[in-house]
Amino acid sequence: MAHATTTADLPARRVESVSAGLCAAVPALVAVGVLAFAAALMTDGQRALRAYLFNWLFFTTVAQGAVMLAVIVIIAKGMWSRTSRRFALGFVAYLPVAYLLLLPIYIGAGDLFPWVEHVDPPGKAAYLNVPFMIARHVILLGIVLALSLAFAYWSLRPDLGALKDQASGRVRALYDRMTQGWRGQEAEEALAHRRTQVIAPILAISYALGFSVVAWDFVMSLESHWYSTMIGPYLFMGGILGGIAATAITTIVLTGRLGLRDVIPENHFHDLGKMVFAFSVFWAYLYFSQFIVIWYGNLEHEQTFIAHRYDMPFRPVAQLSFACMFVIPFFGLLGVKAKKTPKILATFAGIVLFGLWIERYFLIYPSFYQGAPDMPFGWQEIGIALLFAGLFLGSLLWFFTRFPVFQQWIPATEIELEGVDVEVPARAP
Fold first, then answer.
1. Which 8-state DSSP code applies to residue 427?
2. Does any domain span residue 185?
């Protein structure tokens, strides 16, 4: 058995009950968000769609970024992540919802994208048209979604086969469906390891390509004369930073809720804190890299994108997002104690997430409100954010009330890295 190691003693726990307040909060958030979206559509349909777009970008990139954290640590064989990789994987439950939530963007494309009625310059018409945009999103994001779900399935399957006799009711029925054709524990673990090792790098490449296209279509095309080779990496790496921050908060909250703080060593929070710190620095590097090429190019059509975001009324938003995503976490997480203290780490991770939300707003709104006397930020943006927050939270609760929060099985290659000799089973037929 691949579990023959001292690091495999994590409890098989899941969230078995949810407080009445939280159960009521999820549908309440969704209901308020739906009402806010409907009211915004009736009062100012274009602003409603813009608020919808930047909230879709934020919640989707955070969820996919968290899944990519689980992918990255599998590729890198990061054994330190065994106590958090399942928390990162849980965000996969939101991705099918996000895929469906693209529909209002496509329906409202005529009011949302300035190039729908008139493409300027005309040479971009072959790319900037709604049917082709929908087609490339359906295909590319569909591939990312399918690979993410496949990665989650093979990551979960060995645990579900081992634990299904302890489950009952709907959870047992779900485990039975997901473990059909069970081959035995050792063979399943070996097969799951091979499948995840194949899926993970393909998913990483697909994520980079798919969300680069999202950046081109949902951000860069809003000012069709402007172009940037950095906008794709800037958007999807920001999503990974948000995913790491969200994973850190989820790990801290759920381990506290389940009374598992003694299970997770202090060094684990230190590692998560280092990830938040490192990716915050890398995000700042991409932020500066995009700015510097525009600055030294000194071309008017390149400068407009930056000028629109650093002129009033959006300058405070630019400064706030940079402070929340780099300055505050950099100095706050520079020391060891802050990274090892769960409450402090969660606070800085929350600041990063707030900064990313503001940054997604900063990417979208200045393209539409150039030279506006006041910054358009109010109940429309906040209300529509509640809709996404309710669906996001509900998806996470669905996952963690059904699946164990810690990965029980350990790939044989990870055990070997710990210095334990393991006989890997023959390839399953």
1. P
2. yes
